[in-house]
Amino acid sequence: MRPVRIVSSVILAGLSILPCAIAQESAESRAASAPAAETGPASRPAEVRSRHPRIGLRVDAVALEREKLARVEDVKPNSPAEKAGIKIGDVIMKVAGAEIRDDKAYRDALGGKRPGDEVPIHIRRGGEELDLTVTLPDRPYRSEPESITVQHVLIGFGERAATPAGKKRTAEEARKLADEILMKAKNGGNFDELVKSYSEDAGSVGKTPPGSYAMMQDGKPKPTPDARSWSEWVPAFSALAFALDVGEIAMTAPDSELSPFGFHIIKRIK
Q: What CATH number has the domain bearing residue 215?
């Protein structure tokens, strides 16, 4: 299966929390050789973007899903988040007075905000709690590229993926395996080999490089004949992929609306 339209590490992507992206905010894209993928309203990607103002940070999707902690794992240089004083390791406790324990809470907290609004953010840093203010940018602080190429490893569970022994992997087993693969990748593991050894996206494993997809913004020319646009992928996959810098690796966690196929470990390579 390939990542399709329906948008972990989650993603507070711009403080964009993507579903476990708040992230920067698997992707399964439809192809003739792949089973029909779940789809959502054509407007979904735009809606997701508008609900996730990009302020330049990413939250650990696994920690958000498992521990209900919005722990910051990346802050982009010169971003609104950095200017507000948010640092890697901080835990986002409240946004605009609302407790942040999942992606929905974050989206609801910022749902009515406008560019230029000042948003209070309550964080925990070590044993100290701090109140900071993030000013929502009038325009994106960091423009997204028109086209990218990524590699990814998909780890499913339940009906989404059967183990070699024929038993259905549980969500907890999938999460544990995805965590291990993410750590191997971040510690310098060969991503090609990780794809070939673990990925359950059969439509991409045999590609060169393994597990790769070319993607472009909606309305932009295709960089390659098989490239697919932002809105043809599940929103979490697109949001995270376009938020990554070249060489950066992160993960989206399952979400019934935004990332229904399982855990996606994504590396941007172009």
A: 3.10.50.40
* Residues with Cβ within 8 Å of residue 139, at least 6 apart in sequence: 115
pTM of the model: 0.62
In three-state secondary structure terms, 177 is: helix
Q: Are 254 and 268 in contact (CB under 8 A)?
A: no
- Per DSSP, 220 falls in state S
The owner of tokens 């993928």 is 37
Alpha helices in the chain (DSSP H): 44-51, 61-67, 80-84, 103-110, 171-186, 191-198, 202-205, 235-243
Note the pLDDT tens digit of each residue in 85-133: 999 999 999 998 989 887 777 777 776 777 788 999 999 999 999 999 9
Environment class of 188 (CB within 10 Å of its CB; exposed 0-12, middle 13-18, buried 19+): exposed
